[in-house]
């Protein structure tokens, strides 16, 4: 049984995957969506309790309008497909981010899927949409419960994060060969092990996930100790 409770993925490389094949960027996002199912299945088989996926950042609104529309259409379609898998395997589907800014159909599909899987007891699939780590921290600082002296405890601050109820990130994986966090789960990844994978997201496989988890098991996590 793996020691990982929570693994997070920055799913980078969809556009480059498509460009290398002379395809439109939308084809890369479609391929990437299919990869999500494979990775989730692999993580479940490894006994991981929670998987976080970076689907759309607060900065991604800068992309071309057609690409954004295609991404949200895929998010809508993903929820409908994922709902069947969540029911079959007992997964819990949840989202984090400022969902009020999403198109109505995408938001409705998200809300329906989350509501219908909320009472499941299996692995948690946590999808970040219109999400930014710095923005999340500022939001929590403004909304966290304060005591009579106006102070905020760490527990109350964490309860104000989108990720409340999830364990801290043990392993953060970025695909696509880039070496940055891109504003993803900054607070939750304070002691995460980082793994930067050159493979573009659509080419990720169960075996690659197993290899990464195997390398994680060899690392010595000291959390500031000796």
Main sheet attributes: strand count, strand direction, barrel closure: 6 strands, parallel
Beta fraction: 15-25%
Strand tally is 6
How many separate helices?
Answer: 7
Low-confidence stretches: none
Overall geometry comes to globular
Q: Level of helix content?
A: 40-55%
Mean pLDDT: 93
Radius of gyration: 17 Å
Q: Please state the oligomeric state of the protein chains shown.
A: single chain
Alpha-beta content class:
alpha/beta
Termini gap: 25 Å
Strand numbers in spatial order across the main sheet: 3-4-2-1-5-6
List the helices and strands and how they pair.
Layout: E1 6-10, H1 14-20, H2 25-45, E2 50-57, H3 65-89, E3 92-96, H4 104-117, E4 124-131, H5 133-143, H6 154-159, E5 171-174, E6 193-196, H7 206-217
Helix pairs in contact: 1-2, 2-3, 2-7, 3-4
Written description of the protein model:
The chain has about 230 residues and is of the alpha/beta class. The chain is about 40% helix and about 15% strand. The protein is built from 7 helices and 6 strands. The chain has helices at about 15-20, 25-45, 65-90, 105-115, 135-145, 155-160, 205-215; strands spanning about 5-10, 50-55, 90-95, 125-130, 170-175, 195. Strands 3-4-2-1-5-6 form a 6-stranded parallel sheet, sandwiched between helices. Helix 2 runs parallel beside helix 3 (about 65-90). The model has no long low-confidence stretch (mean pLDDT about 95).
